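Please decode residue identities from the backbone states below.
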């Protein structure tokens, strides 16, 4: 007599673990993105994501509880958790949500750097400072996170030996940013992330 598929070893040790693995990837990816959206001040999208996330999690944990003696299910659960976290971070990096503050300190005259940044619609503030070895110039700019790699490349081009630091910005009132048209799903989500408050 042929063994029923749902009670066979193939289903127990291959199909069920793969189901758990896939479910954990989905729910952990959604969890990572949901938390990031919340930290960026997006109000409604995290709730929608959380609704589907918990349903998928219940499917995964339900299968684990139904197969407590199956060690492969435990491995699949842990592997899905780790993989889902990694994928969620990759998605967040692709979205490049939020604003970033870049602070540049250099002993050299930064006029060319300032002129270049302003010509590309980046808001720049300049201050005089005093370092351990003498006078320095401090250049501040707040940019969209998706522009960070480009701005860092500009800094290295003009002042390769300059010190710079990068910090996340929660919110701002007013600001100057290069205008780019948001396209696709990522562009739509990015448009939800932030509203500048006008005075």
């Amino acid at each position: 007599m042929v063994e029923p598929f749902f009670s066979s070893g193939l289903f127990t040790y291959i199909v069920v673990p793969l189901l758990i693995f896939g479910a954990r990837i989905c729910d952990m990816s959604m969890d990572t993105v949901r938390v990031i959206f919340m930290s960026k001040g997006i109000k409604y999208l995290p709730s929608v994501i959380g609704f589907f996330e918990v349903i998928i999690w219940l499917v995964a944990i339900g299968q684990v509880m139904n197969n407590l003696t199956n060690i492969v299910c435990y491995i699949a659960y842990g592997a899905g958790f780790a993989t889902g976290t990694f994928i969620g971070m990759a998605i967040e990096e692709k979205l490049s949500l939020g604003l970033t503050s870049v602070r540049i300190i250099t002993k050299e005259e930064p006029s060319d750097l300032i002129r270049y940044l302003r010509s590309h619609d980046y808001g720049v503030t300049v201050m005089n400072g005093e370092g351990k070895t003498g006078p320095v110039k401090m250049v501040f700019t707040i940019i969209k996170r998706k522009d960070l790699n480009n701005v860092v490349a500009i800094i290295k081009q003009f002042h390769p030996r300059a010190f710079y630091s990068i910090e996340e910005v929660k919110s701002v009132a007013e600001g100057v940013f290069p205008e780019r048209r948001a396209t696709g799903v990522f562009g739509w989500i990015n448009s939800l992330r932030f509203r500048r408050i006008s005075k």
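Observation: The chain has two domains: 5-95, 99-192.
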